[in-house]
Amino acid sequence: MQQHINLQEVHDYLGELAREAGEMITAAHPSTLTAGSKKNSADLVTETDQAVERMVAVRLRAKYPDYKFLGEETYQPGMQLTSAPTFVVDPVDGTINFVHGNPYVCISLALCVDKFPVVGVVYNPFTAMFYSAIKGRGSFLNRKIRLPLKAEPPPLTGLKTALVAVEWGSDRKGHNWDVKLNTFRQLGEQGKGMVHSMRCLGSAALNFCAVAAGTIDIYWEGGCWAWDVAAGWLILQEAGGLVVDANPGGWNPTVDGRRYMAVRASGGGKGQKEIVEEFWKLIPGRFDY
Predict the structure, then answer these.
(1) Virtual CA dihedral for 286, 92, 208, 126, nearest 10 degrees?
(2) Angle between helices 226-238 and 204-213 (to 10 degrees)
(3) Is 40 helix (H, G, I), strand (E, B) or coil?
(4) Measured between alpha carbons, how far is 259 from 288 in angstroms, rounded to an integer?
(5) Which of 110, 163, 178, 263 suits 138 as a labelling partner, its CA being 20 to 30 A distant?
(6) Over 70: is that where the pLDDT of 170 sits?
């Protein structure tokens, strides 16, 4: 199926939509008082999320009527990512940042075929950073700067020299919450992982892009959805990065598996698998997403 799709055309069109969506996002004035919530007060939605997804869905269905669509704001329980060509869309990734005026916000657009991304676009309109990739053709920042930013990325030498991205997420109780908190402690504690530090950008897509760029070494996450990661996944892989399961032992994760560990590129892949295994050994338990 992929060979019959003009991936460059899709890439360029997704770029156009991302720019248009960016204008809608930057023109909005959301706040914590006007945002609605989904499952709890840490899982927010704004009118802009919904308006952007409507715009993107209408335009994509008009231009590519035979392709499926999976979007965050129109998702219904039971919907699944299938092998058919599918646009996977997060209209505003980083909604909590958005309502607080924090600029780490983006739109994430991907085309998946056979359940994996073949085109990905992530655009932050507040910083004018446009990340994109086409399968087999590399990934880029603002269309011209090849990722990772360092042409010869340094080797990964272990967690003690790593900058790690994590997120609180919206699941704030129960087993998965305990796994997260206990892993954060293992990563930070002297005598355990003792990583250089941990960062929360507040957007899964931008975390993936930061790993692709090489400005973050690892991003570990449980609880995200396909629309959060599909575009960033491809951007990272095309930059020489590695995606594995957040749970120990999972070398072959799925885009809709809701558990991810993203690892930056290193020269010849040196240290990638070793740092994954080092990280996995620190995780007390397993996510059950």
Answers:
(1) -140
(2) 10
(3) coil
(4) 9
(5) 163
(6) yes
Q: Is 205 helix (H, G, I), strand (E, B) or coil?
A: helix
**What is the Cα–Cα distance from 55 to 25, expressed in whole angstroms?**
12
SS3 260: strand
Element holding 55 (H helix, E strand): helix 47-63
Structure tokens at 268: 């010849």
pLDDT of res. 36? 61
How far apart (Å, rounded) are the C-alpha atoms in residues 226 and 158? 28
Write out the E strands in the chain.
Answer: 36-37, 44-45, 68-71, 86-93, 106-113, 116-124, 129-134, 139-141, 145-146, 163-165, 197-199, 218-222, 242-244, 259-263
152: pLDDT confidence band, cut at 50, 70 and 90?
very high
User: What is the C-alpha separation between 207 and 177, in angstroms, rounded?
Assistant: 20
Contacts of residue 145, Cβ cutoff 8 Å, sequence gap at least 6:
none
Contact 257, 231 (CB under 8 A): no
